[in-house]
Specification:
This protein is 23% helix and 32% strand. It has 391 residues and is an alpha/beta fold. The strands form two sheets. Strands 3, 4, 5, 6, 12, 13, 14, 15, 16 and 17 form a ten-stranded mixed β-sheet that branches. The mean pLDDT is 95.
């Protein structure tokens, strides 16, 4: 069996989480290898709602720490990746039948602004009634109030590629396509087999970071001795790309069916509509929008934009990794969980869940956990100052 190199860290998965860990680790001076079985951002990291945001709706469920962290990270993204992450105006219409009152929404937006720490990106306002007819065909029947606030949008695939490009410029290596096959752990080493170009190759590492997203527990099951698994559900979020465009910005809507949040967003001269939350039990590679999900999203869009074209150009779905719990997925925590094989000098850290917005903060948490296992290295760069640009 061919033998390749020894690395400080081998990362399994080339999504946004894996790319962020690669950049952070390479900046700290560690030797890094990323194994990605298909393509960068091939899974959930290119099938999101394309938002870099604090998560306004998480306030309703008391997740203040997550919102605060997300808003701090949003600020960093805007500073470090201005060509990839941009502020956009978001509109929240309040109708007679909207379940959340004007007062509740105003209170939530005020708290959101407070957690954002002030500045232009934290401001919100009421849109005067005289301007409602300019809101991209939003129905004004029963409309009582419209709020406008700011959040950020991105191209999630390009952002992942840019992070990996930054990591590579700092010395990280990427093998793609290369599929992780098996790892054997010892007190001092991780022996790793992977498939590349129909050939089994071998490398070793001090630490494995499992950033495989929906495949996270499949990776765990290929490690000997097997690390503990964290109980999770896979929850499918589907999106539609519609013909037409939006001129005023983004819309944060309440589904008339179940009161969930649904976004209507501009996306490359078209309209992005999402998302759903459907429990998924199949092969992650076969995730695709259900007919019921498509109908749900189109019904919501037609409810608020009754005169707009509803021709579907494209549809896609991504899989969230959420902790097992009773009740609807909409109310579950989006906090990340880092599962280690051992609390003392871990050899394996598996990343469960996580939001695109906080991937860089998650990477720092991963490094903090594995540093006792790693050798001393001289840092190469400070990621808090590295500009992230599309390759």
């Amino acid at each position: 069996m061919p033998v390749s190199n020894h690395y400080d860290i081998v990362i399994i998965g080339g999504g946004i989480q894996g790319a962020a860990v690669a950049q952070a680790a390479a900046a700290r001076g560690y030797t890094v290898l990323v194994l990605e079985k298909t393509a960068l951002a091939a899974g959930t990291s290119s099938r999101s709602s394309k938002l870099v945001h604090g998560g306004l709706r998480y306030l309703e469920h008391g997740h203040l720490a997550l919102v605060h962290e997300s808003l701090r990270e949003r600020s960093d993204w805007l500073r470090l990746a201005p060509s990839l992450v941009r502020l956009s105006p978001f509109y929240i219409p309040v109708y007679r039948k909207t379940s959340r009152s004007t007062l509740i929404l105003r209170t939530g937006l005020s708290l959101y602004a407070l957690l954002a720490g002030g500045g232009a990106s934290s401001r919100f306002r009421s849109v005067p009634q005289s301007a409602w007819e300019q809101l991209d065909g939003l129905t004004t029947e029963g409309l009582k109030h419209v709020f406008q606030y700011w959040d950020a949008q991105t191209d999630d695939r390009l952002l992942t590629q840019a992070l990996m490009h930054s990591a590579s410029s700092l010395g990280a290596e990427l093998l793609c396509p290369a599929e992780f096959i098996h790892a054997t752990l010892s007190p001092t080493l991780c022996e790793i087999d992977y498939l590349q170009e129909d050939r089994i190759n071998h490398c070793s590492a001090a630490v494995i970071v499992n950033a495989a997203g929906p495949w996270v527990n499949r990776v765990v099951q290929r490690i000997d001795p097997r690390p503990p698994e964290y109980p999770v559900d896979l929850v499918q979020g589907s999106h539609l790309v519609l013909e037409g465009c939006l001129n005023r910005g983004c819309y944060y809507l309440e589904s008339p069916i179940d009161r969930r949040a649904v976004f209507v967003l501009p996306w490359y001269q078209h309209i992005l509509l999402g998302t759903t939350e459907t429990l998924f039990n199949g092969d992650p590679e076969k995730s695709s929008p259900l007919a019921t999900e498509e109908a749900y999203l189109l019904d919501c869009f037609h409810h608020y934009f009754p005169e707009r074209n509803m021709a579907v150009r494209e549809k896609f779905s991504g899989l969230r990794v959420l902790p097992v719990a009773h009740g609807v997925a909409f109310h579950r925590s989006r906090e990340i969980h880092l599962q280690c094989d051992t609390s003392q000098k871990p050899r394996v850290v598996s990343i469960y869940g996580g939001k695109l917005t906080v991937c860089r903060a998650t990477a720092q948490k991963v490094l903090h956990i594995i540093m006792p296992t790693l050798p001393d290295r001289a840092p190469r760069a400070d990621v808090s100052k590295l500009i992230i640009e599309a390759p």
